[in-house]
């Protein structure tokens, strides 16, 4: 894949562009070493196609633009298997459609902010968990996925495999660094600690801050709407886009609950006592028998039912 030529930037300037506005960078020396060799930094950003993409996706998109400006080779991983394993949020039959929908959305977002998408590599994920499963403990895997995998009382094995796969994506994609939100930190730490144990090199990790709804001031909303306009136009003009959206997120079919037919309309007032012997078989059905007095004690009740009461 071709990368942006940036002969006008020094290694230090490239690093400043790569690390700018990030909340944290783990192992920055790895990045600086690659840049000092005057070769493109290989970096990937992954996303699991579950729910519909939202405006928060503009945050990583802007950083992808920075990476490309710094001459990085950027891979976008559409983590379809991860999406299925995340506590089965998305049924397997929908994951393929959602992965395609995400690709179309991401390309449209990048075009909206002026990023040349031909310089990106899109990869559909698959399982890479075999190697790490032999050396990572259940505790470490659960801890690593705590921020990104839905937590339940009895966690599924899929939730433990998820962080292992994300760690192994680094090796499979042949990158120098992985980029993600700060909520990915535990998975990044898991990768850094365990990949060298199975013969893979350690990677750098870059984390951007999470976007809070409180950050969306009125001025930001206007800017977002301007960015969303070309994305809406892409959607309206692309029949495949529309079709994929329908397949990825089909309309929910509301099932009407049938009202249970009530049997009988009789009513027995609470102040009226009806003894068991006064009720002939079939005179009261279960819904009509609101209150039937069979006595004030167990013995009295038995006597009445046996026909012995006076």
From TrEMBL:
GO BP annotations, alphabetical order: tyrosyl-tRNA aminoacylation
Enzyme class: ligase
EC number from the UniProt entry: 6.1.1.1
GO cellular component: cytoplasm
InterPro entries linked: aa-tRNA-synth_Ic (IPR002305), Rossmann-like_a/b/a_fold (IPR014729), Tyr-tRNA-ligase (IPR002307), Tyr-tRNA_synthase (IPR050489)
Primary location recorded for the protein, binned into one broad class: cytoplasm
Start and end residues of each stretch annotated as Disordered: 264-310
Record's catalysed reaction(s): tRNA(Tyr) + L-tyrosine + ATP = L-tyrosyl-tRNA(Tyr) + AMP + diphosphate + H(+)
Cell compartment(s), UniProt: Cytoplasm
Entry keywords, A to Z: Aminoacyl-tRNA synthetase, ATP-binding, Cytoplasm, Ligase, Nucleotide-binding, Protein biosynthesis
Superkingdom as given in the UniProt entry: Eukaryota
Biased composition (Basic and acidic residues): 300-310
GO molecular function, one term: ATP binding
Family of this protein: Belongs to the class-I aminoacyl-tRNA synthetase family.
Protein name per UniProt: Tyrosine--tRNA ligase
Organism of derivation: Tuber borchii
